[in-house]
Amino acid sequence: MRENVLVELKESQSPQHVRVNAIKSFLAQFLRNNGARLGLLTLAFFVVLAAVPGVLVGPLQTAASATGDFLTAPSREHLLGTDDVGRDVINLVVHGSRISLTIALVSTIISLLVGTTVGLTAGYFGRWVDIWLMRLTDFFFVIPSFVLALVITPVVLQHMGRGGTIIGLRPSLMVIIIVIGLTSWAFVARIVRSQTLSLRERQFVERAKVVGTGNLKIMVSHLLPNLVPQIAANGAIVVAGAIYTETALSFLGLGDPLQPSWGTLLSLAQRAGAASSGAWWYLGAPGLCVLIVSLAFVMIGNALDDTFNPRRRAIP
Amino acid sequence: MIWRIGSVLVRAFVTLLMVAALNFVLFRVIPGDPAAMLLGGARSSATAEQIDAQRERWGLDRPLIPDQVLQYLSATAQGDLGYSFKFRGRRVSDLIIERLPATLLLVGLAQGVAIFCGVTLGLYAGWRRGGAIDHVTTGTSLALYSTPPFWLGMLLVVVFSTMLGWLPGYGSYSPGLVNADLLDWFGDRTGHLALPVLAIALGLIGQYVVVARAAMSDVVTEDYMVTARAKGLTSGQMLRRHAFRNALLPVVTLVTLNLGYVVAGAITVESVFAWPGIGSLTVEALNARDYPVLQGIFLLLGASIVAANLLADVAYGLLDPRVR
Amino acid sequence: MDGSYLSRRDALRAILVTSAAAYLMNGQALASTCGDKVVSLAGIVSPDTLNPFASWANFWPLVFTYDWLVAADAQRHPDRKGFASDWSVADDKLTWTLKIWPDMKWSDGQPATAKDAAFTYNYLLGSVGTPDELNVGWNSTSGLELVESITAIDDETLQIKTKSPTRWPIDNGTMIVPEHIWKDVSYADARGTFQNPAPLVGTGPMIVSEFQQGQFARFTPNSYFRTGKPAVAGVIFRFFSTSDPIAQGIKSGDFDFGMSLTVAQWEDLSKDSNIQVGQSRTEQRNYLAFNTKSGEGAGSTKALQDSAFRDAIGYAIDQKAIVDRAFRGHADSGAGLIPSASIDFHPDLSDIKRKFDLSEAARRLDAADYRDANGDGIREDKEGNDLQLELLAGNFSGNIDIPVAAVQLVAGWLTEIGVSVSVTQLESGALRARTASPAKGGGNWDLLIANSWPGSAPGPMLGIGSSKSIDAGNTSYWSNTKYDKLLSEIDTAVDLEAIKDLVNQAERLIYKEAPYISLGYPYVLSAHRKDCITGWGPDDDMLSMGNYYPLDRLKPL
What we know:
The structure holds three protein chains of three kinds.
Chain A: H1 15-32, H2 34-51, H3 53-57, H4 89-125, H5 127-142, H6 145-159, H7 171-183, H8 186-200, H9 203-211, H10 215-254, H11 262-271, H12 274-277, H13 280-308
Helix pairs in contact in A: 2-4, 2-13, 4-5, 4-7, 4-8, 4-10, 4-13, 5-8, 6-7, 6-10, 7-10, 8-10, 9-10, 10-11, 10-13, 11-13
Chain B: H1 2-29, H2 34-38, H3 48-58, H4 64-77, H5 92-127, H6 132-146, H7 149-163, H8 182-220, H9 223-231, H10 235-257, H11 259-273, H12 278-287, H13 291-319
Helix pairs in contact in B: 1-13, 5-6, 5-8, 5-10, 5-11, 5-13, 6-8, 7-8, 7-11, 8-10, 8-11, 10-13, 11-12, 12-13
Chain C: H1 3-31, E1 38-43, H2 59-62, E2 67-68, H3 71-76, E3 84-89, E4 95-100, H4 114-127, E5 147-154, E6 157-162, H5 168-171, E7 175-176, H6 179-182, H7 187-191, E8 206-212, E9 216-221, E10 234-239, H8 244-252, E11 257-258, H9 263-269, E12 275-281, E13 285-290, H10 307-314, H11 319-326, E14 331-332, H12 358-367, E15 388-393, H13 404-416, E16 420-425, H14 428-434, E17 447-452, H15 458-462, H16 481-491, H17 496-513, E18 516-518, E19 521-529, E20 533-534, E21 555-556
Parallel strand pairs in C: 1-10, 1-11, 15-16, 15-17
Antiparallel strand pairs in C: 2-7, 3-4, 4-6, 5-6, 8-9, 9-10, 11-19, 12-19, 13-17, 13-18, 14-19, 20-21
């Protein structure tokens, strides 16, 4: 039974050497997994789409620059058809990938940061800190992120509403990012906490304490590196969840039609009556992308999990 | 044991309290006049008298602690969730109770179908690992699990309702069907249930297959299974006596834990199918910025999820012999 | 492997599936018969109560049950009269005499006379000045300040005396309610919690017999209706919040009539030979407004206060492209404030109308001294600052949504002529807050795209430019003494020709000053099936937006 990749000072090798070897062997194991390879390939494809959408399909088409006739089925000029204003669906979907992926990734980063901090603090300090933080985590764990976001987002949106952009995203999308990030960290916090609890008793932590290292330094330089594998494995699942939550929120109209994500495109399609007039291309393309990207992250997450823990463990 | 139950109950109660607290805090934290924000969704332009009346009702003139908090908590505990803006004059609690049965029917049926199909398929795939069926099943299940249920719903509408015309794509019954006999009534209801249930159930089936399969694979390699085989038990007996019960543990936990996922799915799916339940009520309230209704539903969801988790804890305790 | 264990499950599943399939087929077949002679309607409406004093949102279903005294439809169509059969005003222009239909009865058999009409108005009048004034619903006290007295001379004659000349007596949209039902309802209740429970009592052709909020309203024919009991067995009106169910229901035969369709659905339905599609004009106007305030709450540049700037921008708006691309032809091209649906008052501005020409717009901007001096593609105003304008876009509640495409088109054109625009979308409540007067916390925006549907009378339609309406529809904060004077003359005129002339003058004035630039007048898209029920109106007026027509004359096939 393989242990987690622990970084302990060995007599013969320098710490960096050990780390590099560990990473190399991890990558080799990881990439042997079929799911991981497929997932990474798919992800790479979509990241390319998201990074340089303008290069691939030109600028985001608006009503003014629409090229096609209204709601036409896929044809040679428009491989995925057009929407109800005549815009090319491929163009919309490629630009949507930038929005959807950015929202998912940034909100996941926020989520991981908050979750790790909470879990680490709770696991390390224990007792009252642990109890209070865990009550907080319980709340966010139990109530689904989507439901929380649904209640918080309209209130915040009602208050905002200035134009302009922040890091290239419109304010309403920033609100969604922050709300998703602040409501989906509990999952990670729990895992980090349980890992911290078991790591805290190890010898190297005791040694560091005896030497007089500060708590913060212990947490950051000693405990954190050992948590990275678990965080990474579960991070992929968190991203998949963030994609789903953002798509659902945008579908309900909380997104921004001027910078449409895939979810917003689905919402626009529904409002245009695509389902009842049979415009399956307008509906199908954005949804399929959500499915594929989610699936890719789920497969990567499963592969990471298999690599770190060959025997699947239940959620603590 | 008593201590365990007690601590679990305390945790549940604290969570519920936090749900109520969020409702309370949300409007007071955001800058701006809470009364004006609350009435932002009111249909006609809010007059000064209406704003004052709301201010009075919410006790916004009185000091925050303890007056406002106590009034809010006591009102909520008594079931007074306020009045809706959009459906003027109706109590939020009445609205919720009126719409609840439709959602329970939809979600309950979807869960039932999903458990039945998903667990069966998953256990079978886990029992017989490797091979084409297993791979296809796992692949499809992962894909279904990653699919947004409302998108699936819209596709089902396009295919089965718009293009083929086999099944109705909206509502829970045909209102023109006034003087029908029981069989027709039943058929009509079932027809309207088909697509929405499918939309929710397919995603759940994906989840259950994956988990049941994993649980079964784990169990199959356990020591006691090897012992059982050595003792000469047939596959069927092994399945029934040992594997089944032990593999069911994580599945049971999943059923109660994915209530959150189901809720999210139900909200969006109901909006696609115009299903007259809590989900579409949420969407209508969202569009109209009808905050009392939104908060009431949030409270309801929070309470039911807390209750479900409680059940999961208890069930786990009963099912897992190691805990006892 | 124990084969029988799993095959039992399979067998059970198979049985369930096949029996379910049988039920499904059966159920679907029953849904599309013509047998029951009940008209089923569908639309995106959400009435909240059956009480006309308590809410603005319940035009449907109440319009089928109650009569208006006169109102717009009756004036335009001689066969669509309301409670009054005829009306005239004395030479003093203050005394109106209205003849009420003889031998009219309420749906419960009680006689319906001028006394009920007088009661309805006096009931409203009595609430004026009290803390429970009835000003929150269709039946409201607005306009009553001009009324001196309302009396029923006899059962068939109603007399209304006004303090100054006005067409209010025949333009107002008050639903006439029965005295014997409402006389004991207190003002507080009428204003709020009185639900006016079904079955209602009215003089319209279809009486609400059951009402499920958010679901449907069921109607039974009024056996005492003045032109005879309707031939259909009843009506059911289903309420939805999205249009997909409506389109599907029309296709499958569940609904005989549906409105609020999207363009895609409309075009799809038009291919079906069993379905007749149509579109009706509405009195809604979409517009682009400039924040013309100076001082507190002003926009980011003084250019907005310069009518030459606004006029030049007008040349950059392609009305035809908006109709073609954003509405796909389902709107009327914009010109003045009064929509083309208002046939009496829609002005002819063809001689001063601005033509779409981006180079002309650029030329005018140059001539007005808004050039791009530093070559960065953005023009500067007279103070030397770049023209970076914030454009608010949204829909006021109850109106037909402005397509996002229209907003994008306008933003695109403005950017092309060197005026940089950044769009902020707001929903109704936030929009109202930002467009309130600066004294109430509004202002500090530059451009606004919104919609307005104030009713059929010329006064309210032009009121969007009146200085008195600055917190009640005048989102541009514009005021002009000459315009205000024209409006007050319109309010006190009674002769139709005189009013038309004044309206023309006012429209031209505001068109030239351009605090608002029209963005078109949208249609409502609807469709009805050709089987089962007949008697629907013509394609441009299938179901009236202002009357119960044609529910009084539908017949089963």
